[in-house]
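Appendix B, Record 12. Input sequence as logged:
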Amino acid sequence: MSGNEGEEEIVFEIGVVVPKKGENQGDESSLDCVDVLVDEFKKRGLIVERVLGLQNEFIKLAAPLEILGKAAAELQFRKQTHIGMDLPFEWDEVEAFVRQPDGSLFTWCERFRCYNHIIYWIVNTGKSVVELKYDCREINWIPGEPLLRKLESEGVVKEVFPLHDENKRKKLLRSWALNWWDFTTQPIDEIYLYYGVKIAIYFAFLGKYTRWMLFPATLGLTMQLVDFGSMQLLVLPFFFICLISWAVLFFQFWKRKNSALLARWQINHLAGAESEYKFFQMEQSSLQSPAELMKKRGADKMKEKAFFQREEWFRWLMRFRNDAVIILSIICLQLPFELAYAHLYEVIGSDFLKFCLTAVYLLAIQSFTRMGGKISVKLVKCENNENVEYRARSLVYKVFGLYFMQSYIGIFYHALLHRNLMTLRQVLIQRLIMYEVLENLMENSIPYLTYSFKKFRAIRNKRKREQGSSTGKGQTIPRVEKEYLKPAYAASIGRELEDGLFDDFLELVLQFGMIMMFACAFPLAFAFATLNNLTEIRTDALKLLAMMRRPTPRADATIGAWLNIFQFLIVMSICTNSILLVCLYDQDGKWKVSPGLAAILIMEHVLLFIKFGFSRIVPEEPAWVRAARMKNAAQAADMCSKQLLRSISGDEKIFSQMKKST
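Logged structural output:
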């Protein structure tokens, strides 16, 4: 339901998929497990609606605000209060907490967590086994066992997935996906409220990145259209210096934008703080008073230190081992394959044979990437990371290593070994134009074709079952079943760790690396990338709103590991473009130390200084965000210290009274 006060409109936000009942259901007096599940949902205060589809039955769930509030209190959500402090949520003190910009009390991520807590914590509270029936099968629901988990393991519940809010979805379609005239302007606050913080951060990054791309695109277009003649070797270094300065400044200002968005959305992002001190918090929760807490903390200080050190080094060694496995696999397996393809592409003269070679290469590399992704997922699961976010970051680094070798080793081969700039430009044009266009077509057409095929198959199966039946009538597909037939917004690799943003960010990263690392060879690439990103904003929005299910919300408040990869590519671009300038300057290949080559070497060191110097000059968060954070921290410390002192004084008084009485 909507979180607005006084609003009675019911919005179903969760769907549960179960098979349709067959004709042979066994003893009617026995407890049907689906009926029991629906009754338990109602006992928990949920609003339930059952919908018969063509192939399955759907249970739609909505929750009144009070039910969600009590679940949030059980989960101990920390929410911002009107005095600026983040405190554990209490339903009885609901007026003390700040609401969202649209008036709702909880974000979509918080509501989804509440729904999961309610429906997955329906357990058998009795002392005896409950016998359930489904399709002539007997299911034993033992005491203390979650009912939904049991039915999922038995195959009764096929899936639990979030539902679209049709009114908000249509509003976003008009104001966002179909609003091409606004170019990079997007309703970021509405995206955050509907999809959650992670997807909103992605589109905020994509919009800001595309706006900032206009500057290098203009410079690149000028470099391509204007003939500078003998001044070309002086203009290219100037263009390169501008690019590096632009990239460094962009990411610093993006960090400021990210922190401003989190402050506006009332999100405090403490990376890893909660998971790092989980053990210590569990120790604290078992204590009875602050006085006992102080004694216990002093006694267990050495044990706590040893625990953290042991866990830290164990995780580090596991990550080091897995990273070494991936790196050696890339060097021993993928590197020779990529070099062989690049060499054959260079020596083959026939365009037809080059096309056939590229087709075979693409098929082989897809299989290799899928295999490498599966291995990476298995390795990540063995790393004992603190939480899902850390596991996802580890997966990002490993998979990017595979794609980095796949995407750039052939280009390095043409640029550095053969020093063939014409072939290098041709490869860049193929990768930027053909790859980007085909990628956009594939990522938008495949979900639509998948949905259309599932829909056609469902209607065809329904008609086959109704043939020969005098009562058979045509039945339309309900909206909830249409959503179920749509593909999930999941990553192509490691679906259990990442969502579809993995592929979207990977596409941006590979594009950024290609246009930055070979900028001096093909300055026009920035113009092509800008046009692609302008269409990417709307096509990605249309994909989310019309072609995919509503994604499961994730609480990541930054772009995470991708930011480190972008920074790595900036450093790589300084090295590769310096080498390209050397190749352009020393066309004879004599590699003599001359003033020109010495100037390029000095420029490389200056750019590295700019890269790390600008990162310190531009603050990562605006002054108003930093001031608000320090004010809230001071208020929290003051209030907690006063409460702690009062508790300690009370304990001392009780202890002295007990001593006098004895």
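The longest strand covers residues 56-62.
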